[in-house]
Write a structure and sequence with these properties.
- It is a single chain.
- The protein is an alpha/beta fold.
- It has 5 helices and 6 strands.
- It has a 6-stranded mixed sheet.
- It starts with a strand and ends in a 46-residue tail after the last strand.
Length: 227
């Protein structure tokens, strides 16, 4: 399951899981260059109240939904609820300690665009929330160490920047966290009382104490009187 505010950007297309679907809080129209019939949203739902059963999803992807949600902790709690034990949650979020984070601190006062009105969620804060929900953080990586300029020519020519500073600078404009749900799944086993020999009730055949037959009469031993 993929929860995203950008439904026409599918991150699970190359997954080996056959059953894949996405949910979005609102319908975001795709760009004119994309085919709406192939890259459209598959379902609308409130992300803080998912219409799914408990422990029914193997992998849950949160694609920039925590920063734009009014209640990010509840969204993460719902994602943990529907994830099976030993399942995984993958979170993509913007890093406030980056060039894009510094630009967002100033642009939020001058622009009403949603990209600048997002929440600033640190990676350490999300890790604390995951540990509270019985998750273990398996991987944390930062992406996008170049300037936050959304231009195709600049992005193609500045890919070497991300490769050069990937080891020297442990920060980036975005980060992703891979966490595993360590809560053990308990399935109660009902005891088979009917098949139990210890507590099972078996009929006892009646025996006559006055019968002389050795098969039907019970002979009780008597102690010899001391003379």
């Amino acid at each position: 399951m993929e929860l995203s505010i950008v439904p026409y950007e599918r991150l699970s297309e190359h997954s080996r899981i056959n059953h894949r679907f996405s949910l979005s809080p609102v319908h975001v129209p795709p760009p004119p260059s994309d085919d709406a019939s192939l890259r459209d949203v598959q379902g609308l739902s409130e992300l803080d109240a998912l219409p799914l059963a408990d422990e029914s999803i193997d992998v849950t992807i949160l694609h920039h939904v925590l920063e734009f949600s009014p209640n990010p902790h509840q969204v993460l709690k719902e994602a943990a609820r529907v994830t099976v034990p030993r399942g995984h949650v993958i979170i993509f979020a913007f890093n406030p300690f980056s060039l894009a984070g510094l630009m967002q601190m100033g642009a939020q006062f001058y622009s009403k665009r949603p990209i600048w009105q997002r929440r600033a969620l640190r990676a350490g804060r999300i890790r604390d929330w995951l540990e509270f929900l019985d998750f273990s953080c398996l991987s944390l990586r930062f992406l996008g160490r170049n300037l936050p300029i959304n231009h195709s020519r600049y992005l193609n020519s500045s890919r070497f920047v991300d490769r050069i500073f990937s080891r020297s600078i442990p920060l980036g404009s975005m980060y992703y966290i891979v966490a595993r749900k360590d809560k053990a799944g308990l399935q109660p086993i009902k005891p088979a009382w009917d098949n139990s020999r210890f507590l099972g009730v078996a009929p006892i055949p009646k025996r006559s104490m006055t019968a002389r037959s050795s098969q039907s009469a019970a002979i009780l031993p008597f102690r010899n009187r001391m003379r």
